[in-house]
Amino acid sequence: MLFSEIAGGQNVGILPALVVAFGAALVIGLAHASLIEFLRISPLIATLASAGILQGITLWMSNGTPSAAPPRLILDLAHQDLLGVPLRMIVWIALAAIVAAIFRRTPFGRHLFAMGENRVAAETAGIGGFAVLAGAYCLSAFLAALAGVLFAGFSGMSYLGMGDEFLLPSIAACVLGGISIYGGRGTVVGLLVGALFISILSTVLTVMNFSSGAKLAATGIAILLAVALLARAGAGESE
Questions:
Q1: Contact status, residue 194 vs residue 175, Cβ threshold 8 Å
Q2: CA 141, CA 32: separation in Å to the nearest integer?
Q3: Per-residue pLDDT for 61 more than 90?
Q4: What is the Cα–Cα distance from 106 to 158, expressed in whole angstroms?
C-alpha cells in the first residue's frame, strides 16, 4: 500500500516508493526481533499482534479503498516475458539462488541454522544472539515487502488483506519442502519443490471445479499429512 500510494502510478516514483516500503518492512522486522528478544514474547504472538496493528494502520491509511494501479514498470515486470520465460519467474529463481547462497555460504546463514537447531547451544558456542535474530526477521520482512510490490503489479492494485490468501499455502510449501517447523533444518530447493507442489495442486483442483473452501481444506490436509510423515521419519532416525 505504501509503495502504490507513494509511486502514484508513475515510473519516476518507483525508487522513493521502494525506499519507503522496504524501510518500513525493515523497521517491522526489527520490531519483531526486539519484542521476542527483550520482552520474551512468543514469536507467534508477536507476529499475530503486529499483523492486527498493521492491518488497522493500513485500513486507516486507505479508508478501505484499493490503491491506484502501480507504475507501468512494475506491471510489466509482473506480466511480461523474456525469451518466453515470465519475468516474475526469473525474479523468483534469482531470489532463491541468492537466499540459498546466504544460507550455505555466509556466517549469518550458518549461525541462523545453528540457532534454529538449538539457540542455547549456539549462544554457548559464541554464535547467534540478537544480531542473527534481527537479521532473520528483517530479511523475512524485506522479502515479504518485495512480494507485496510484485503482487501489486500482478493484480493491478494494492488492497487490504491482499496477502491473506498466501498464508496457509506458504506454510504448506515449507512443510512439504522438508523444512522443520521447529527450526534448524531445511533447504531452499526443498521449499521450491513444496511451492511448486502447492501451485500444481491448486491448479488441478481449479480445473476440477473445486470451490475455494475445498482448496483450502486440501491444503490443510496436505500440511497435516506432511507433518505426520516428517514426525514419523524423525522418530525413525532417532531410533
A1: yes
A2: 10
A3: no
A4: 35
Cell of 146: 518485495
pLDDT value at 238 more than 60 = no
Grid coordinates representing 84 are 518466453
What's the grid cell of residue 62? Answer: 486507505
Give the domain range for residue 228.
Answer: 163-239
Is 80 in the same domain as 186?
A: no
Question: What residue has cell string 531452499?
Answer: 188
- 3 vs 20: CA distance, rounded Å: 7
Phi-psi region of 143 (alpha: psi -120 to 50; beta: other; left: phi over 0): alpha
Residue with the bigger pLDDT between 166 and 239: it is: 166
Q: How far is CA 60 from CA 4, 67, 68, in A?
A: 16, 13, 16
Q: Which of 106, 141, 161 is the C-terminal boundary of a domain?
A: 161
Q: Cα–Cα distance between 37 and 43 in angstroms, integer? A: 9
Instruction: Give the total number of structural domains in the chain.
Output: 2
Q: Which of 29, 12, 9 is nearest to 146 (CA)?
A: 29
